[in-house]
């Protein structure tokens, strides 16, 4: 009987409890130990898209109408079977209706004062917005990861204490270390053998990432030498940009860099001061454009996609921004390669 509690359940619940069920913002359904529907509020019927008469004739354990309404009927059928086989336990399941609505269903036993099983209370909550936001977040993270991994420049994420939290394949190649090795290093580690452009040792406090972490200000186009794991010295042009931390996350910087070892060699071999200057200016322009586009646009666009309240049209715009920045980086990388061959 919809909207009315039978005597069995009424003996275990007060009228206040019945009123609470009727006025609950969640869908509420009570069934007896045999699975027959004995009470449901209007929210339950609306969420499951049942008419009043239709639900009153439906046993929860033989809810063919419910199975036909969801996109994961096997999971719901198993959920129903579990509640029937083990009536003393709590169960929870998220289902998606064919109409697109997502419901979080929680089933728990009802007992009288002596512990005897009277039936089950089944609540349904509309979690469509949350599920949609979570799916968009997963898609955004996957898309961002794929973009970063395909970039033609090295990108690492570095935390306040100097730890490297992420690195793309190009960073591993340039630095000559796997991510597992990088995760155990900081910018202060002497194994980098970091040096200034003139060859003098680079103090840890002068590393672009350290400066950005300490001041919150970006550093751009800093040339420094590093020692790879195999002992080879390479020259890189580095930019670091602060990331606005999301709630609950520690401050971090995005460090992007490109290997300019061959460019430096070309400058030295050219002998022509004007050619060397032109190559250097081209390198600076390419690095400045690529690094800023990657660190600022990609980094902050990604942070913006983590906000579950971001409207769908804005999320699409952010994705387009990340795609465009990635495309620009590839074009600029090809331009740099061409300049080295000239």
Describe the overall structure.
- The chain has 342 residues and is of the alpha+beta class.
- Helices cover 46% and strands 21% of the residues.
- The chain contains 13 helices and 10 strands.
- It has helices at residues 7-10, 15-23, 42-47, 52-56, 64-69, 73-85, 128-149, 169-175, 179-182, 208-215, 261-270, 273-305, 312-341; strands spanning 27-31, 37-40, 91-96, 102-111, 117-126, 154-159, 164-167, 219-227, 233-243, 252-259.
- The strands form 2 sheets. It has a 5-stranded antiparallel beta sheet with strand order 2-1-5-4-3, sandwiched between helices. Strands 7-6-10-9-8 form a 5-stranded antiparallel beta sheet, sandwiched between helices.
- A hairpin with an 8-residue loop joins strand 9 and strand 10 (252-259).
What topology, given as strand order, has the largest sheet?
2-1-5-4-3
As a whole number of angstroms, the C-alpha radius of gyration is 30 Å
How far is the first residue's CA from the last residue's CA? 86 Å
Q: Approximately what portion of the residues adopt beta-strand conformation?
A: 15-25%
User: Please, what is the average pLDDT?
Assistant: 76
Helix-strand makeup class: alpha+beta
The oligomerization state is: single chain
- Please estimate the helix content: 40-55%
Number of strands: 10
Shape: elongated
Q: Can you tell me the residue ranges where pLDDT is under 50 for at least 5 consecutive residues?
A: 1-16
What's the story with the biggest beta sheet?
5 strands, antiparallel
Q: In sequence order, what are the helices and strands, one letter per element? A: HHEEHHHHEEEHEEHHHEEEHHH
Number of helices: 13
């Amino acid at each position: 009987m919809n909207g009315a509690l039978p005597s069995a359940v009424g003996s275990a619940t007060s009228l206040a409890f019945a009123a609470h069920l009727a006025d609950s913002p969640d869908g509420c359904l009570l069934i007896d130990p045999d699975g027959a529907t004995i009470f449901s509020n209007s929210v339950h019927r609306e969420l499951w898209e049942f008419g009043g008469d239709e639900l009153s004739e439906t046993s929860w354990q033989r809810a063919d109408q419910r199975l036909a309404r969801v996109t994961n009927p096997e999971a719901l059928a198993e959920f129903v079977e579990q509640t029937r086989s083990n009536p003393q336990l709590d169960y929870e399941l998220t289902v998606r209706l064919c109409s697109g609505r997502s419901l979080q269903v929680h089933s728990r036993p009802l007992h009288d004062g002596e512990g005897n099983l009277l039936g089950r209370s089944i609540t349904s909550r509309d979690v469509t917005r949350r599920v949609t936001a979570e799916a968009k977040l997963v898609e955004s993270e996957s898309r961002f990861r794929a973009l970063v991994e395909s970039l033609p420049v090295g990108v690492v994420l570095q935390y306040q204490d100097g730890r490297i939290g992420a690195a793309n394949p190009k960073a591993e190649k340039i630095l000559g270390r796997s991510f597992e090795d990088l995760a155990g290093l900081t910018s202060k580690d002497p194994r980098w053998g970091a040096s200034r452009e003139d060859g003098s040792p680079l103090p840890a406090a002068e590393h672009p990432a350290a400066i950005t972490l300490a001041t919150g200000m970006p550093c751009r186009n800093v040339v420094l030498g590093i020692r790879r794991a195999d002992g080879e010295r390479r020259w890189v042009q580095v930019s670091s940009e602060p990331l606005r931390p999301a709630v609950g996350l520690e401050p971090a910087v995005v460090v992007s860099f490109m290997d300019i070892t061959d460019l430096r060699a070309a400058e030295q071999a050219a002998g022509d001061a004007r050619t060397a200057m032109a190559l250097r200016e081209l390198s600076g322009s390419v690095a400045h454009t690529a690094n800023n586009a990657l660190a600022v646009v990609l980094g902050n666009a990604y942070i913006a996609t983590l906000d579950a309240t971001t409207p769908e049209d804005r999320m699409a715009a952010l994705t387009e921004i990340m795609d465009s920045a990635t495309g620009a980086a590839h074009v600029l990388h090809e331009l740099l390669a061409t300049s080295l061959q000239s």
